[in-house]
Amino acid sequence: STGGAVAAVDLGATSGRVMLGYVGRDELRLEPVARFPNHPVRTIDGLHWNILELYRNVLAGLGQALHDEPDLSSIGIDSWAVDYALVAGDRMLGTPFHYRDERTSRGIDAVHAVTGFEELYGVNGLQFLPINTLYQLAAEREGGWLDRADSMLLIPDLLAFWLTGARRAEHTNASTTGLLDARTGRWDTALAERLGIPPRILPPLAEPGTIVGTLLPAVVAELGAPSALPVTAIGSHDTASAVVAVPATEPEFAYISSGTWSLVGVELEQPVITDASRAANFTNESGVDGRIRFLQNVSGLWLLSESVRHWEKESGETISLPALLAAAAEAPAPAAVFDAGDPEFIPPGDMPARISAWFTSRGLDAPRSRAELTRVILESLAEAYSHAIRLAAELSGHPVRVVHVVGGGSQNALLCQLTADRTGLPVLAGPVEATAVGNVLIQARAQGLVPADSSLESLRALVARVFPPTRYSPTPR
Ligand code: ADP
Ligand code: LRH
C-alpha cells in the first residue's frame, strides 16, 4: 500500500471512539481502537459533561493507536456541537455544561431582550434551538464568568488545546455557536458585544485541512508519540464530518445523520436565508470546503435511548435494543404520530410519560406497550424526516432523488424502511461510522495520502466503493 495512517477521535453524545484510518489512492480502512460511553453528570449547579473522563479515554485511545501504528501522521478531533469550556490562561473555568442543562432558558430571554429572532436569523442563519452556544453564553453572563475568561473553546477545540497548546475555533463547529455571520464566515463581534459576550473570548478561526499545532512535550511523553505529530483541523462538528462521508454517487441526494440527534437536509454552495427558511426553522451550518449544510435538527434516537434509560431504571432490567426493535416491527402502525421536534422532548427525564401525555392531552390514544411506544417514536421520526426533506428541497430548489442515512441509526432497519415509505424515496444506509470516516478523509487529504485537490465528490466515491450502503426501497402501496 502507498497510503498512510491517521487517528480520528470522535466524541458523540452517546459514546466516544478513537479509530485508526488507513488511506491511500484507492484504499480506505478504519480500525476501531477504543470505544467508551459518554455519561453526563449532574452536580449542584446543573448537568455537565464528564470532560476529564472523556479526555482520559481519548489519551488512552491515542496511546493504543500509536502502539498499534507507530507511523501515525496526524490526529483529528470531532464531537457534538455547541458546547464549550471557558478558559483563563491554561485553566478551565468550571466543568463544561451539557446542552440539555436547564440554564439555556435564561439565556434565551437575555438574548432576545437585545435582538429578535428575525434579526438573529438574518445574521447567523441558524434554526432556533435552545441549545445554541449564544444562549448558553448569555446565561453565563450574570455569573460574571465571561469577564474572567480569555477564551471560549468548543469541545473539540478544548481537546486540541490540551494536546497542542493552540487555541482555535474550527470553522464548521464555530458555525453552530450563533455568533458567526453565515454570509461572511467571520465572527460577528458587534453582535457578540451587544449580547455582553466579550469578543476577545472568540478564538481565531481554523479551516478544516489546516494544522492546529503539534503535540506538547508532556503529551508526547505520555503517549510515546513522535514529537512533531500534528493535530489537523477537520470538520470538528461531528455532523460536518458525517456529511463529508455520505457515500453519494450523484448530486441529487438528501442526508440524515442519525445518532442521538437526526440532522436532515441537503448540501448547498450558498446559504438560504429567507423569510420562508426562517419560518420553516431551517439551519445553515458551515460544511467542509465551504459547503453549506442546509438542514433541520429534528431530534433523533435520543427519544428512544432516553425511553430505554427510563425503563431500565424503573425495572432494574437490561433492555436489548435489537429485541425491542424486533417487537416494534411487529407492533401495529400507530393511527397518529407526534411532533418529534417539539422542544419539550429535549430535557432528560421520563420520556415514555412525556410522549404518552402528548397523545392523551390531544384526546388521542397513547401507546400501550414498550413495543408500541418504540414504534410510534420511529414512525414519528420518519414522518419528521419526510417533512424536512420535502422542505429542504422546496426552500433550496435542490432536487432530491435518494436519501442517505449515516451514523449509528443507519443500523436501525425498521427506521430506514419507514423513512423510505414515508418519503417515497430509496434510502441508502451506512456507513455507521461516517463521522470517523469524514474525520479521517480530511486529515488524509491534508497529509497528501489522497491528492490535495480531491473534491468531496471524489472522496464520497471512494466511501461508496469501500462501504457500499444497504438499500431500502419504498413499499409499493
Ligand atoms: P452519537 O454520535 O450521537 O453518539 P451514534 O451515531 O453513535 O450517536 O448513534 C447512536 C445510536 O445508534 C443509538 O442511540 C442507537 O439508537 C443506534 N444503534 C446503535 N447500535 C444499534 C443497533 N445494533 N441497531 C440499531 N440501532 C443501533
Ligand atoms: C450531533 C450534533 C448536532 C447538534 C447537536 C448538539 O451529534 O452535533 O449536529 O445539533 O449534536
From TrEMBL:
GO cellular component: cytosol
InterPro entries: ATPase_NBD (IPR043129), FGGY_C (IPR018485), FGGY_N (IPR018484), Rhamnulokinase (IPR013449)
Carbohydrate kinase FGGY C-terminal domain boundaries: 254-446
GO biological process: glycerol metabolic process; rhamnose catabolic process
Molecular-function annotations in GO: ATP binding; glycerol kinase activity; rhamnulokinase activity
The keyword ATP-binding is assigned to this record: yes
Keywords carried by this UniProt record: ATP-binding, Disulfide bond, Kinase, Nucleotide-binding, Rhamnose metabolism, Transferase
Residue stretches making up the Carbohydrate kinase FGGY N-terminal domain: 45-244
Gene3D superfamilies xrefs: 3.30.420.40
Keyword Disulfide bond: yes
A Pfam family it matches: FGGY_N
Stated family: Belongs to the FGGY kinase family.
Record-given protein name: Rhamnulokinase
Species classification: Bacteria, Bacillati, Actinomycetota, Actinomycetes, Micrococcales
